[in-house]
Amino acid sequence: MSGNGNELRVGVIGLGWAGQRHLEAYDALPGARVVALAGLEEAVREELAAQHGIERQVARWEELLDLDDLDAVSVAVPTFLHAPIAIAALERGMHVLCEKPIARNGEEADAMVAVARAAGRVLDVAFNHRQRGDIQQLKAAIDAGRLGRPYYAKAWWLRRTGIPTLGSWFTQSELAGGGPLVDIGIHVLDYALFLLGNPDVRAVSASTYDLLATAGFGSSPDANKTGATSARKFDVEDLASVFMRLAGGGTLLIEASWAAHRSAVDEFGVTLYGTDGGAELIVDDVAPVGSLRIFGDDDGAPVATRLRVKPGRGHVAVVEQFVAKIRSGDWQGHDGSAAASLARVVDACYRSAAEEREIRLDRA
Question: Which of 114, 37, 128 lies closest to 74 in space, CA to CA?
């Protein structure tokens, strides 16, 4: 095993945007090297292998996992493949870094966690948004007490025309697990709970809509989406809104949309209210840094402070932390359970929307 100071040998499965970010991140990290690449698009695979100096490249993930000298794999493929690939890799003794969401649902996620624990291997999930510089700086301000005790938060990621290619795996619930809530909303849920100190979600009340997508509005102008098929299927939501009750009495509102009659600019962010102050982060068009303000009170007068923010390190930080966990030798607790808990929250949200009632997670 290469986790004791020798070079960590890694395989990357998936050739899309996320897979390419993983390749770049490993390139930037001393002591870890991608030695195998898997993906179905032959021309893209050959180009990436040459660009990153990768020794072996294969079409199918099963072929990559059959290689006998890999320490770890990155899984950056459609969501319905996360569980089968991760489980197979863990059972072969490999550590796994999986793209978000961890799986299509909580049942699959829990199965992945159970195998990671049984195998004694690291299972990590790539939540690169919490590694943004603005999110990290806001977290530092909260930890420094500038907001007092945060008790109310609203977080969102909203797109006007952001439906991934109609007929792709993204728009089919059987393959993706859901629409924008599980696709981009999972980032929002992760960074919001991270900022709040990771309280448990006790109950959810959700509504989902597909009114625009089914009427033909909202398809993404991005022609680079992968996974299109001949199907013209859309059976997921295009907008989700969720009210969450948190342990300790706090409240979190989540909004996620692929389609909405709003500004054409892709926007995400968070608003927080605390006992001693508030904060607002707004990021337009997935900019490297957003507009971050802290609100306070100076002897009865309102004070707003705009913080200067440096860009974060995104997937570089994600991969760096994954490798550090492996090298630590203390793998207990690094089993994907935090990401699995988010999957169960999303399951409860979809159930709440379907049944038109609040769902308590301690009774779900």
Answer: 37
Type of residue at 270: V
Q: Are 161 and 220 in contact (CB under 8 A)?
A: yes
Q: 41 in helix, strand or coil?
A: coil
- Measuring CA to CA, how many Å separate 345 from each of 98, 158, 254? 19, 20, 12
What is the block-wise mean pLDDT of the chain (364 residues), using blocks of 10 residues? 70 97 97 97 98 97 96 98 98 98 98 98 98 98 98 98 88 96 98 98 98 89 46 86 98 98 96 98 94 95 96 97 95 95 98 98 72
CA-nearest of 49, 42, 94 to 67 is 94
Whole-structure pTM value:
0.94
Residues near 216 by Cβ (< 8 Å), separated by ≥ 6? none
Tell me the pairing of strands 239-246 and 201-209. Answer: antiparallel
